[in-house]
Specification:
Elements (H helix, E strand, L loop, with lengths): L9 H8 L4 H5 L11 H6 L2 E2 L9 H8 L3 E8 L9 E2 L3 E2 L5 H11 L3 E7 L6 H4 L3 H15 L3 E5 L8 H17 L4 E7 L7 H13 L5 E5 L7 H20 L3 H6 L1 E6 L1 E2 L5 E2 L1 H13 L4 E5 L31 H8 L31 E2 L4 E4 L2 E5 L3 E2 L11 E6 L1
Parallel strand pairs: 1-2, 2-5, 5-6, 6-7, 7-8, 8-9, 9-12
Antiparallel strand pairs: 2-3, 3-4, 10-11, 13-16, 14-15, 15-17
Helix pairs in contact: 1-7, 7-8, 8-9, 9-10, 10-12
Length: about 400
């Protein structure tokens, strides 16, 4: 992702990494409550809370129904060391500004994931001595904010450093083991054949360490891409890479695969419109992929005429749009319909008795658009991807009532 923007001793690092976090999260400064479903963390778009004219998260939630945000980026201190900072300058240990953003989001029923790394800057995997020390630095972030999710954004220049990637993957494995239920995503560069040589080396490192995150996501932009068709081809090719690397079948690989796009104009002058996002969203849901996100909410708004001079901006998309157009695709992926500007309730159709009941709805089954089930002596049709959402429980939910049966 483009932000268009002293190490712990070994003994202390190992002790903290091995401590586990159930009690720590409970007593964190964040006042964290129960986690959202993994589907929300998988849909969380990136937001820079301290840079690039941060939008108001509460406004986005009200306008779109979005509940989860991917806050970026945690880095090593610019002056050196193995302690977590926001952007290399603001220590996590003394942070109040990002904490305030998180508190606002959680007060409205949402939650956050935190992304570490990104494009440029010094990463903790480069600065810390080993996986345990790296994990200890990240554990401070997990504990401080009571996190239920974390993202490892492994790209240039760090992913060209074998030792740094070993530290990052090792740290991710430690965090996963010591924080039961922690949603872990790993994001890396995308290429036409899925991911490049360094991305493939990162996957091999994960395999050698026996580490499997919730997903490996690629960023199919800034690499000669031309709209959604080139992106879905890259996702198909990346699926083959995951299969060959880990010995997974196609379905298992898709269940561990993610997409991380860039809305509007990319750094290299590619353009990705709302229609492109819809096409990739359809691909992701129909293949039961685990993640659909984008860079970034700071850019999810119309440029002014003065700003839209054929350049990439960190604060607007450089394409025609209404504010938060792209966020609505994340909401759809999570399985919720974004509200309109002025919500108008859809009249409940008068059920017509008769007709046989479809197969009974199951809370564990995955349903996609047009799948039919029965529940409460009514038949229901899915409007989009859904799992464990009771038919009829919400007026804005994923199920359309087809009448009594």
């Amino acid at each position: 992702m483009r932000p268009v923007r002293a190490c712990l001793g070994a003994a202390a690092a190992v002790a903290l990494a091995a401590a586990g976090t159930t009690a720590l999260v409970t007593t964190s400064a964040s006042g964290a409550t129960s986690a959202l479903s993994d589907r929300w963390y998988a849909a969380a778009p990136y937001l820079m809370p301290l840079d690039n004219d941060p939008p108001n998260a509460a406004d986005i939630m009200d306008a779109t129904g979005l509940k989860a945000f991917q806050l970026a980026f945690v880095l090593a201190p610019n002056g050196g060391g193995c302690s977590p900072t926001w952007g290399g300058t603001s220590p996590v240990s003394s942070d109040t500004a990002v904490q305030s953003v998180i508190n606002t989001i959680r007060a409205k029923g949402g939650d956050v994931s935190v992304s570490i790394g990104g494009y440029g800057g010094t990463k903790l995997g480069q600065a810390c001595a080993d996986p345990a020390a790296t994990a200890a630095a990240y554990q401070q972030v997990v504990t401080k904010y009571g996190l239920h999710a974390i993202d490892f954004d492994l790209e240039e220049p760090e992913y060209e450093n074998t030792a740094a990637i070993r530290n990052e993957i090792g740290a991710a494995k430690i965090l996963q083991q010591n924080n039961p239920g922690l949603y872990v995503s790993v994001t890396t560069a995308g290429t036409a054949d899925g991911t490049g040589w360094f991305g493939k080396q990162m996957l091999l490192e994960a395999k050698s360490q026996g580490f499997t995150p919730n997903n490996f996501s690629i960023m199919p932009f800034d690499g000669g891409f031309n709209g959604a068709a080139s992106q879905t081809t890259a996702l198909t090719n990346f699926n083959s890479v995951l299969q060959s690397t880990f010995g997974w079948d196609q379905a298992t690989a898709y269940a561990h695969e993610g997409f991380s796009g860039m809305n509007g104009r990319s750094d290299t002058g590619e353009y990705f419109s709302q229609a492109d996002f819809q096409t990739v969203l359809d691909y992701a849901t129909s293949h039961h992929m685990d993640r659909f996100t984008f860079w970034s909410l700071n850019r999810d708004r119309q440029c002014t005429q003065a700003d839209n001079g054929g350049r990439t901006s960190g604060t607007c998309s450089s394409v025609a749009q209404s504010s938060w157009d792209f966020a609505k695709y994340s909401v759809k992926f999570a399985g919720v319909t974004p509200p309109t500007t002025t919500p108008t309730p859809t009249p409940t159709p008068t059920p017509t008795p008769g007709g046989s009941c479809k197969t009974a709805w199951s809370s564990t089954a995955v349903y996609t658009k047009d799948n039919e089930v029965s529940y409460g002596k009514h038949n229901w049709k899915a409007k989009w991807w859904t799992q464990n959402e009771v038919p009829g429980a919400s007026e804005w939910g994923p199920w359309q009532d087809e009448g009594a049966c």
